[in-house]
Amino acid sequence: MDDPPQAVLAVNARFYRALGNSDLKLMSRVWMHSREATCIHPGWERLTGWRAIYESWARIFSHQRRMRVWPSELFVKVDSPLAVVTCIETIDASTALIDSLAQAKAMNIFRLAGENWKMLHHHAAPLEVSGFQELTFPFSAS
What we know:
Largest sheet: 7 strands, mixed
Number of strands: 7
Strand content: 35-45%
Radius of gyration: 16 Å
């Protein structure tokens, strides 16, 4: 892809598709398999190295059902060989009786590896109280 910001956003979109579908194979294709890779899940300590990150996603996905996750308010900055995407993550983990939305702020850093952008760092943290962290809506029969 000749447009670096669009290429980075495409990989970023694959990351959120992997997260929403609990797709460990796709998540593995998105990440850089390096000791330099880091990840900070909401409420977790920093994980360093692809092996620790992979094991964390495997553990998360084994307990997570499919959900809708989408980024908004995306900002991308490319300064090759690195690119940064900041966004707001919205997570819809609806159940049969209650719709629940949560939001987090996220920073994803990518590194150009050959011709492909790979995730080098992911950091997500719940939004502060001034934003909304979790909204619960009663089930609607409509």
